[in-house]
Amino acid sequence: MRRILLLCILLSFSTIAQDKGDLVFIYDAPNEYNRVTQELYFNKGLEKYKEYLNRKFVFPFNVTVHFTDCANENAFYSNGKITICYNYIKTKYERVRQNLIDSKVVGHEKLEREAVLGIATLTLGHELGHGFADFHQMPFTGKEESAVDEFSLMTFLDYKEEPKDVRSFYGVIAWFYSGVNETKSMGFQRYASAHAPSLVRYYDLLNLYYDSGIGQDYRSLLIEGYPSKPWQMPRSRVSYSSGEYEQKKKIWSRLLSPYLNPNLSEKTLGDPLYKKPEGKHHVISQEHLYGSTSKAKIGLALNVSGFGVGERPIVNDESNESGRIVFEITVDDIGNIIGARSKESTVSQKVVELYKQAVFKMKLVPKSDNVPSTSKGIITFNIKHQ
């Protein structure tokens, strides 16, 4: 009886993930123009994949992804926020370009775009995996870094849009060159690290990619041949790992099932205008692009030192009132709005309360890790009904 009760409790935990947020991209203007900033900042090359992830998974709050310039090359997850540094992606891309594209080993100049987006996509997935381990308490065994490597690749290989084959190829290959640099200065202590050596992680990912059968055009390049390339899979590994992808796919399907959109289907994943059911905080639709589901045009201005807007709030303003509302807000160090009061308004109190509720649902984006525990500032709405 106790075993049955425990099983029921465990099963109930697998169904409690609530969809209260989304991935939200924040782009800082880059310090320089290059291939990476062109694709990520100017062309917004990961927006479609972001929409796919928002349709596929549930999120307990808005998870911001901040693309920015950094003093050090890095990408990391911390406290509900992902930071991806332009120079981190650029370094990985440059290694791939110099060794594969420029040397004519693979493709031509047009593939530079796919190389950038492939590297950025798997980087995003990797950091999102850390997020799932944090806010969803996603279980895994072994080293977390290796687990989120798999999460990233397996999630992207399930993406239905092309060209995932070429993007995942470049995203995986980039790990090889990171590993090569690492081995030049790697001592015995590296094997005791919380992170598995990068080349071990690389060959694990390469094997999954090869065994998936998705990159048919690249399969002949992936396996050790003559003359052999250093980044190719040794034939000895291929011979005993057939079927690993399908095994991993089943495992990840079970692990991720509590965090999938309950209305998920092939149709909803493939429909860019799919709307989540009523009661969800977010819809992916034309109206959402303008921050409103009403006929009002809403302008928003934020003035809080050290913070940016994560995403324009959804305001279902069905009134016919036009005017201006100024709120004084208090923000904690991770961007939650914990206080708001109206300083001035030219609309009715009913409309003020409507926008005040929207303010509390916003989450701001800290521009650094050195913001105070609380900050005060101003948010202004300019409302114009048609």
Structure in words:
The protein is of the alpha+beta class and 386 residues long. It has helices at 2-13, 35-42, 47-56, 86-101, 111-135, 144-157, 164-183, 198-212, 219-222, 235-240, 244-256, 266-270, 349-361; strands at residues 23-27, 63-68, 75-78, 81-85, 296-303, 307-309, 323-332, 337-345, 364-366, 374-385.
Helical fraction: 40-55%
The stretches of 5 or more residues where confidence is low (pLDDT under 50) are 1-15, 266-293
Q: Rg from C-alpha positions?
A: 23 Å
Strand order across the biggest sheet?
A: 1-2-4-3
Features:
4-stranded mixed beta sheet, alpha+beta, TolA/TonB C-terminal domain, 2 domains, elongated, disordered N terminus, 42% helix, 386 residues, 4-stranded antiparallel beta sheet
Short description:
This protein is α+β, with helices and mostly antiparallel strands. The protein has 2 domains: 19-259, no CATH class; 287-385, 2-Layer Sandwich (TolA/TonB C-terminal domain).
Task: Furnish the topology, listing elements before pairings.
Layout: H1 2-13, E1 23-27, H2 35-42, H3 47-56, E2 63-68, E3 75-78, E4 81-85, H4 86-101, H5 111-135, H6 144-157, H7 164-183, H8 198-212, H9 219-222, H10 235-240, H11 244-256, H12 266-270, E5 296-303, E6 307-309, E7 323-332, E8 337-345, H13 349-361, E9 364-366, E10 374-385
Parallel strand pairs: 1-2, 2-4
Antiparallel strand pairs: 3-4, 5-10, 6-9, 7-8, 7-10
Helix pairs in contact: 2-4, 2-5, 4-5, 4-7, 5-6, 5-7, 6-8, 7-8, 8-11
